[in-house]
Each structure stands twice: as structure tokens, then as C-alpha cells.
Design brief:
CATH class of the largest domain: Mainly Alpha
Distance between the termini: 52 Å
Strand order of the largest sheet: 1-2
Helix content: 55-70%
Order of helices and strands: HHHHHHEEHEHEHHEHHEHHHHHHH
Number of strands: 6
Number of helices: 19
CATH architecture of the largest domain: Up-down Bundle
Radius of gyration: 31 Å
């Protein structure tokens, strides 16, 4: 059994079950490049502040660089008895360069070391996620532009409400993803704060230069309270929260694609390459990708609740409970990146059933609001106009007719305000084009919005 770094205090060796139970190396080994990056910066600072000799620093830095190459090449043997990535690397460093390797841990603790590693890791992953969000936004814009003339039913309560441009509907999700991108970018301000130098929880006795290390590692700020620095996981919780909102948006889009691709709706067809079949029913084409994204949203929610629950009762400063912070973050990173990547590719393959969409917009009395507005323009108060049109709709439903079956004689039984021009006024195309306000569904406004978007799209 390996000698522990704290063995001086203990008379008995750690039970093997305890080693297995407390070890985190099985998952935190993915932090190795950040652990080494942070250690090199820390070592450079120790030499700069004359806490260790420059020759010792050179030896340590070369040893760390060689260890990174070993891990990159799959030649490094991780040892569960060494608990975590920090001790695995430190032990290997001492094996490689001798006792001088033990000087690397001067003026730091695993508590501030792991906080540093996670921040460095998240900083990189947030950058990748933002890039993937931008890719999805581009795919949405391309699909919206290619279908600018397609009108579809808009819904509230999943009941047909008013006609809208398909592009307008799709751009609603674009705006959701804009907010997601903004959240991740704003979060970087709180992630990009350096905790190293806080040591175990009280700071350190050595004359270190924290700002120098922060500059080396690209941090824009340093933490101001050592106890908060090692006991804080707000940045991880905020990442999980932003990820949960992003997945919620993807799940809502998934739900619509699933519904629209059903035989009952038939609005779209998802490409075969993004669907699967049934092992028993030959006719089936299942929208597995959006279904899985919808399902994976739940696990991201669970990851958020897991870390919130872990942190909710912890006294300052560091507690071993906080080892449970990494798996929810790692799993969320993987889930979010996979979902965004596959969605960016899938959106472009979706085909619209234009005939079915056109058929659908003439169902459900979707220009009934336009009819009420018509009466308002003729001088009737809106509440009265609303009641009149409600009675018109009720009559036609009982008569098993739709609005396209209207005739002026029947309409005038409900209000003398109806004239011949009502039929042109309630045409679906006219209804859409009249929504010519900022944020409205008229083609003019949607094209204007697309132009604005194309000016801001980032590579």
C-alpha cells in the first residue's frame, strides 16, 4: 500500500475499502492537463518569489511536461491508492525527478488546486459550448431563410391559434439560443477568477505572488477570501443552471419536431440518417435524436439538483462532500456538447411538407382574431367584436364548416358590420402580412430580423 501524504499523523494504513470509496481518480483524471498547467504556473511563481531555486523549478517543469506526454500517449498508470489526479501526478513527478518534486506542493493545498483545475476546465468547455451554440444558430437561420414563404399554424395550449411564418416560429428558438449564449459568456466573468494561493483555507505563510500566477494562466481576477475560494462551487452550479436552461430549450424544440413529424401532423420529415426503425414493426420511423435530447434534459436537471443538494448544508470551508462536484459537471458538459453537435447537423436535413402545412392553416378558424379586428375597425368595441366572432365560430363548428365556407349573408346575421371586403381581410396570407410590427410574423419583419441576425453572426 502506497504511503499517504498525510501518513505522519496516522498509525494505521487506510483500509482498502476506504481507498476505493474515497478515490476520485476514475473521473477526475480528465483534469490532468489543467492540473499540470496550474502546477507549472505555480512552480514558475515559486521560483520568481525565490521560494524554490530556479534550477529546481526547471527540473519540476520538465518533469511535469514529460508526465503530460505520458498521459497524452496513454502510457501513464493511474493508481487508485493515490486517490486523485493531483496525487497521481505528484507521485509520478517525485518518482521521475526525486525529492525536489515534493517542493511543488509548497504554498498550496489540494483544496485550492482542485478549485483551480475545475475553473480552467470549465473556461475551456464554456468556450466550446458557445461555439456549438453559434453553429446551431447558423443552422436555424439557414433553414428559416430557405422557407421564408411557408405559413404554418401557430399554437397556444397546443390548439391552433393564428397563422405564422414557419421561419418566424423557428427564429423564436434562435432567440432562445441567443440568451443561452449570453448566459454562458456572462458566466465566464465568474468562472475566470483564480483561487490558487488560498491553500487549505486560510492562505499561506509564504510570500507568493498570486497576481503573477493569474496572469500566467489568463485569469482576469483573483479570489479575495481564502475560505470562500476553496469552499465555493457557485461557478459550477451556475454552469449547470445555464446548461439546464439550454437543454430545456432543446427539449422544447425536440417536442415540436416529434409532434410535427407524426402521421397526424405530418408537417415535417426528419432525414432517415437521424432516425431509427422498429425491431418488430417494419413501417416505423422513429425520431430518436429529438427524443433522446428530450430525455437527456432530465439528467442535466438532475445534475444541477445533485450539486445544489451537495452544497446546501456545507459549513466553510472545504468538505469531502465537494468531491461530488465533478461528475455532474463532466456529465453535463458531455451531454450538452453532444446534443448541440447533433442538432446542428439534423436541423439542416429536415424537410417541410408544404402541402400539408398549407392544408393545416385553413383549419381551426385561425383568422378569427382578424375577423374580430375587422369589426373593431368598423367601429365595434373589441369585446363586442370578440363575442360576435365567437358566435360565428360556434355556428360554423356546429354546421361542420370552416371559415373558408363563409358567405356574407350568413355573416350578416351576426353583425351588419360585415361587408364584402371581409373575405380578403381574413385570408391567411393577409393575416400574416398585417402582423407588421417589430417582433411580428409578417414576411417584412422576419426578413428584417434575418438581415439583423446575419450582421451579428460570429464565426
Amino acid at each position: 500500500m502506497k504511503k499517504k501524504p498525510w501518513s505522519g499523523r496516522f498509525e494505521k494504513e487506510t483500509n482498502r475499502l476506504v481507498e476505493e470509496f474515497t478515490a476520485s481518480i476514475s473521473f477526475d483524471k480528465r483534469l490532468y492537463k489543467y492540473d499540470i498547467e496550474g502546477s507549472i504556473a505555480h512552480c514558475m511563481m515559486l521560483a520568481k518569489c525565490k521560494i524554490i531555486k530556479s534550477g529546481e523549478a526547471d527540473k519540476i517543469i520538465k518533469g511535469l511536461s514529460d508526465i503530460k506526454k505520458e498521459i497524452d500517449g496513454g502510457r501513464f498508470k493511474f493508481d487508485i491508492s493515490l486517490e486523485d489526479i493531483h496525487m497521481n501526478i505528484e507521485k509520478r513527478l517525485i518518482d521521475k525527478i526525486g525529492v525536489v518534486g515534493g517542493k511543488l506542493h509548497t504554498a498550496r493545498s489540494r483544496n485550492d488546486q482542485v478549485a483551480l483545475d475545475i475553473r480552467l476546465y470549465l473556461r475551456d468547455e464554456i468556450g466550446e459550448i458557445v461555439s456549438l451554440i453559434r453553429g446551431l444558430k447558423k443552422a436555424i437561420v439557414k433553414k428559416a431563410k430557405g422557407n421564408i414563404d411557408v405559413i404554418m399554424p401557430g399554437y397556444t395550449h397546443l390548439q391552433m391559434a393564428q397563422p405564422v411564418l414557419f421561419s418566424h416560429h423557428l427564429l423564436a428558438y434562435y432567440d432562445m439560443f441567443v440568451r443561452d449564449e449570453d448566459r454562458f459568456l456572462d458566466m465566464l466573468k465568474r468562472v475566470n477568477v483564480m483561487p490558487l494561493g488560498s491553500a487549505a483555507m486560510a492562505g499561506t505563510n509564504y510570500p507568493i505572488d498570486r497576481k503573477y500566477v493569474a496572469k500566467l494562466l489568463g485569469f482576469t481576477d483573483i479570489t479575495t477570501n481564502s475560505m470562500d475560494a476553496v469552499g465555493d462551487r457557485d461557478f459550477s452550479i451556475e454552469f449547470l443552471s445555464a446548461s439546464a436552461i439550454l437543454m430545456m430549450h432543446l427539449s422544447r424544440l425536440s417536442e415540436e419536431l416529434i409532434i410535427w413529424s407524426t402521421s397526424e401532423f405530418g408537417f415535417i420529415e426528419i432525414d432517415d440518417s437521424f432516425c431509427t426503425g422498429s425491431s418488430i414493426m417494419p413501417q416505423k420511423k422513429n425520431p430518436d435524436v429529438p427524443e433522446l435530447v428530450r430525455g437527456k434534459t432530465g439528467r442535466v436537471y438532475g445534475n444541477l439538483m445533485s450539486l445544489l443538494t451537495t452544497m446546501k448544508s456545507l459549513p466553510l470551508a472545504y468538505n469531502k462532500d465537494m468531491q461530488e462536484d465533478k461528475e455532474p459537471v463532466f456529465d453535463t458538459v458531455d451531454t450538452v456538447k453532444a446534443s448541440l453537435s447533433i442538432y446542428s447537423k439534423m436541423i439542416g436535413t429536415i424537410k417541410l411538407n408544404r402541402d400539408r402545412l398549407r392544408e393545416a392553416v385553413f383549419q381551426g378558424f385561425m383568422t378569427a382574431t382578424d375577423m374580430a379586428d375587422y369589426l373593431v375597425m368598423k367601429g365595434l368595441p373589441f369585446r363586442d367584436a370578440h363575442e360576435v366572432v365567437g358566435r360565428v365560430v360556434s355556428f360554423y363548428i356546429k354546421s361542420h364548416k370552416v371559415l373558408s365556407d363563409l358567405n356574407l349573408h350568413e355573416l350578416q346575421r351576426f353583425s351588419n358590420g360585415f361587408k364584402k371586403d371581409i373575405f380578403n381581410f381574413i385570408k391567411v396570407e393577409k393575416s400574416v402580412d398585417r402582423k407588421d410590427v417589430i417582433g411580428g410574423t409578417s414576411k417584412k419583419q422576419v426578413l428584417k430580423r434575418l438581415t439583423e441576425i446575419e450582421k451579428t453572426i460570429k464565426d
